[in-house]
Amino acid sequence: xxxxxxxxxxxxxxxxxxxxxxxxxxxxxxxxxxxxxxxxxxxxxxxxxxxxxxxxxxxxxxxxxxxxxxxxxxxxxxxxxxxxxxxxxxxxxxxxxxxxxxxxxxxxxxxxxxxxxxxxxxxxxxxxxxxxxxxxxxxxxxxxxxxxxxxxxxxxxxxxxxxxxxxxxxxxxxxxxxxxxxxxxxxxxxxxxxxxxxxxxxxxxxxxxxxxxxxxxxxxxxxxxxxxxxxxxxxxxxxxxxxxxxxxxxxxxxxxxxxxxxxxxxxxxxxxxxxxxxxxxxxxxxxxxxxxxxxxxxxxxxxxxxxxxxxxxxxxxxxxxxxxxxxxxxxxxxxxxxxxxxxxxxxxxxxxxxxxxxxxxxxxxxxxxxxxxxxxxxxxxxxxxxxxxxxxxxxxxxxxxxxxxxxxxxxxxxxxxxxxxxxxxxxxxxxxxxxxxxxxxxxxxxxxxxxxxxxxxxxxxxxxxxxxxxxxxxxxxxxxxxxxxxxxxxxxxxxxxxxxxxxxxxxxxxxxxxxxxxxxxxxxxx
Length: 526
Known about the structure:
The protein is of the alpha+beta class. The chain has helices spanning about 1-20, 45-50, 100-110, 145-150, 160-165, 180, 230-240, 255, 300-305, 310-315, 350-355, 380-390, 405-410, 430-435, 455-470, 470-490; strands at about 25-30, 55, 60, 65-70, 70-80, 80-85, 125-130, 135-140, 155, 190-195, 200-205, 220-225, 245, 260-275, 320-325, 365-370, 395-400, 415-425, 490-505, 510, 525. Strands 1, 10, 11, 12, 13, 14, 15, 18 and 19 form a nine-stranded mixed sheet that branches. It has a four-stranded antiparallel sheet with strand order 5-6-8-7, with helices on one face.
């Protein structure tokens, strides 16, 4: 009896020790992931969440360098073919083996019409499983930057997708509900334990994770809570209710730094914030100008650009956590140049003159669509822009809404004037051109986020050509020519490149990623 009691006590002590050692990292930001379907929505916080469950072939480390993930090596074996050697002995979190068939399935799924990742791999002609651990990706002609695009294509379990009737990606813009929206099956460091959209997401350590020896110290559990109100996010961090805040409110950064037990990490983000204008429609859908489109006149677009005092926005709205931009891509992206990134002069008098020359001396009214829970101080940016444009007679009807409504509205092309931010996961300018500038063409899988109606045959030709060009000098010339063309045409009004601040308890250690996508397998907790 006595021995049995001792044994029971020892077992209880072991359980208690195990519970004490288990580490939960509680984190928050202003908006939730839009879906758990890894191919449905190309949006930063969504992919940031999904990367904890799903792995790509190649990943970005904290310095954004490409490193092996599900592929141990990759190389071109023909002008139009890349070979990927897969990591052996990898399992999905349900215990089923990962093989080349899952890669083939996932890439074909990412090419489906409802996928928001089609443009990443628009050059892909065929994906072939040579053997269980070898994949060949055949492209339409050479593609020297294909590995850069693979970092964003997450790999699903083919068997799980077929079993749960999610062979095709969710149509996010149509708010389609599928099993993959709230459930997941990947090979990554975590598996989904609970998913209540916009309320709480819990992820537990994946017991079958291939990288547990490579990453032995990451937290046992992640608990994510979206907290839209900035002051509430800060209060939750200070009170210890959360350990990590992705988007520390800029107005509270100094306070956080001065609080015992808290710290921040800061860096320039690979993301630019800008305004888009529907310059392609015969008449704007949301304007008081009838029978013509004022945005089709470059003089109007330039007037709006020059009426925006970006230094005032930087100082007053962004608390100096922004770098004024002349391009809609940031330093660190291949093809970015300081010369092109210089803004045109802020000049209200010149802007008024341009408006008069264009036939709008008294301005006009238009609706500005803006998210209020996606980018740093996004709604405040739009409010400032509205006040500045009023100086040249443009009366803004500001419609600020959650990103869960903002992005579907844009993707349905139901907008005349909008705020958008754009990161570049490939770190190459082609990504910006193919999504935002190329003539929208579903068949070619390009221009899927070009909601401006902008169309330039020379730009289309350059963008297509730079995807295939293997001579670096020739390719760089194409990139430079493309940037020169779109800066001159001005379908977007650049605002700034974001600077980001992560705030956390001093018991958390994690390197900051310039793509603003925390990967908690790189984190540790005291």
